[in-house]
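U., I forgot to send this yesterday:
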Amino acid sequence: MSLSLPGRVVVFDYGEVISRTPHAARAALLEATGLEADELFPVYQELRNDLDRGDLSVLAYWRAIGERTGRSWSVTEIHRFWALDYTGWFDVDPEVLALVEELHDAGTRLALLSNAGFDFGDPYRYSPMGSMFETVVVSAEEHVLKPDASIYRDTCDRLGIEPAAMVFVDNRAENAAGADAVGAVGVHFTSAAALRSALEELAAPTG
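Result:
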């Protein structure tokens, strides 16, 4: 029998839940930028919140990385870095996406809530994957990041539900805890198999 959660909306994070960690893209970025991993990735990660909050454009983000690492890159070079980084995030975990599809096909309502820059909004919405989500909430468009309580509440408002009806899945424990804090059910994602078990437990009849 297909997995279904009647009366609930399962809201998925995207990066490293539906998508895989982009190891190949990160290796390609090191080659393209000429930087060592310990030069690039601490700065890449530190500035990512500003990108995902919508405070930096993609171009400004990469220029800031260049300034912090002593590099001056042209727009042409930055476009190459962006393309390597961006496309790397679209390698999905087929087990997780198949679980999303199983839930959808069984009638469970679904949505996506992602800390991501402006450039991810339309691909999330208009990809084949996006056809399964009622709504897509992207942090840059809201100018707020998980685990801020407002982004979970706004997602619930868009779905027309109370937080208690939302099951939120995220690979970061603090983001799952943020959902718990507003009265939703946060599920810390570690693997497709563990996620299935957690959702089956939530779907099981009680009493």
